[in-house]
Design goal:
Pfam families: Acyl-CoA_dh_1, Acyl-CoA_dh_M, Acyl-CoA_dh_N
Number of domains: 3
Family: Belongs to the acyl-CoA dehydrogenase family.
Organism: Plantactinospora siamensis
Distance between the termini: 58 Å
Radius of gyration: 22 Å
Keywords: FAD, Flavoprotein, Oxidoreductase, Transit peptide
Protein name: Acyl-CoA dehydrogenase family protein
Strand content: 15-25%
CATH superfamily of the largest domain: Butyryl-CoA Dehydrogenase, subunit A, domain 3
CATH class of the largest domain: Mainly Alpha
Structural class: alpha+beta
Length: 400
């Protein structure tokens, strides 16, 4: 200390010197993504959010040039990056906005991953290269209007008609759907007159009988294109089926991929809120001095910084496990449950430090908080992840 009161300040990330845990390549990838978010997202995102519009195709092409779409996949124009590098990219993207990170997550970890993991070679060659460049946009149709946390009871059906499949049903809350070129749709296959296993289908969105309707009047994820997909006797050739996807385990494995990115991404929103609160507290004066100098404000900042670092260490551990091929679904649930929950708590606490200014669109805090309300429940609600962890701890399923 220089005068008994003021010491050199560090950022929350510098508190535990966590950059020392990353490789040079990981640091470089993080810096590249951070720059594109600073240049392409931050100057515009408040307006996108206010208008409820986002230039998905323009952003996808920008992200495609950097290799961010399907970046953790190999071949077919994908970057083949590590799981940790992908996580760091998600963190930086969500520091801009959760909706922007959702665009990348749905494209790469859901739609592209499903085709990459379960598709035929023809399907991979047809769709993955243009999806990797952002020329083609994908979406992932699992959630239904009446079946969110219970996909096993989906009502979408796929019946055989000669060599063709005919799909009927509907999907709801589908990111990228209003602008997508292709959808990975999950439905129960009707065989021998009875609904059997869940199958996946690669569905061009211009197929007759497919309608995508944008969901308006959202109070969260407004910088994201969200839609409903209606399937009205959509006729598909036999080769539309994902040949290696049979059973509910296939779409659930795709969700595991996406949840890993979310465990990282939520930290980006929290970090942006905390940085904003720190700057604001250092500049805002009350009773003759900056509010950052008051004990109650410092207690809030300290607690939030600690939780942010703990979440980062958890995400990094999960990423290292994934890079060793050792990451299990219940471990991803731990990351998603903890990091999103804590990120939302940080956003809400930061809002209190900003006071009335915390609700202003001039600051990102309430936008992040509103977005995190959606992140808390998509890709598995907190309650679902608690039950996944509980089942692993006890050996007993409590879902029904």
């Amino acid at each position: 200390m220089t005068d008994g009161r003021r010491a050199a300040a560090v950022t929350p990330e510098e508190l535990l010197d966590l950059d020392s845990l990353l490789t040079e390549e990981e640091l470089q990838i993080r810096e590249v993504v951070r720059r594109v978010v600073d240049d392409r997202v931050r100057p515009h995102v408040a307006q996108w959010y206010e208008r409820g519009e986002v230039p998905v195709r323009e952003l996808a092409v920008e992200f495609g040039k950097l290799g961010l779409l399907g970046m953790h996949l190999t071949g077919y124009g994908c970057a083949g990056s590590s799981a940790v590098a992908y996580g760091l990219a998600c963190l930086e993207l969500e520091a801009g906005d959760s909706g922007v990170r959702s665009l990348v997550s749905v494209q790469g970890s859901l739609a592209m991953y499903a085709i990459w993991r379960f598709g035929s070679e023809e399907q991979k060659q047809r769709w993955l290269p243009p999806m990797a460049t952002g020329e083609a946009i994908g979406c992932f149709g699992l959630t239904e209007p009446d079946h969110g946390s219970d996909p096993a009871n989906m009502i979408s059906r796929a019946r055989r008609d000669g060599s063709d499949w005919v799909l009927s049903g509907g999907k709801m809350w589908i990111t990228n759907a209003p602008v997508a070129d292709v959808a990975v749709i999950w439905a129960r296959a009707v065989e021998d007159g009875a609904a059997g296993r869940v199958r996946g289908f690669v569905v061009p969105m211009d197929s007759p009988g497919v309608t995508a309707r944008e969901i308006r009047h959202k109070m969260s994820l407004r910088a994201s294109a969200t839609g409903e997909i209606v399937l009205d006797d959509v006729r598909l050739p036999a080769d539309a089926v994902l040949p290696d996807a049979a059973g509910l385990g296939a779409p659930l494995s795709c969700l595991t991929e996406a949840r890993h990115g979310i465990a990282w991404g939520a930290l980006g929103a929290a970090r942006d809120c905390l940085h904003t609160a720190l700057r604001y507290a250092g500049e805002r004066e009350q009773f003759g001095r900056p509010i950052a100098g008051f004990q109650l404000t410092q207690a809030k900042l300290a607690d939030m910084a600690v939780e942010l670092q703990k979440g980062y260490l958890l995400a990094l551990h999960l990423g290292r496990l994934a890079d060793r091929g050792a990451l299990r679904p219940e471990q991803v649930s731990v990351g998603k449950l903890n990091n999103v929950r804590e990120a939302l708590a940080i956003a809400r606490q930061c809002r209190t430090i900003l006071g009335a200014n915390g609700i202003s669109g001039e600051y990102p805090v309430l936008r992040h908080a509103n977005n995190l309300e959606s992140v808390l429940t998509y890709e598995g609600t907190s309650e679902v992840h608690q039950l996944i962890i509980g089942q692993r701890l006890t050996g007993l399923a409590a879902f029904v």
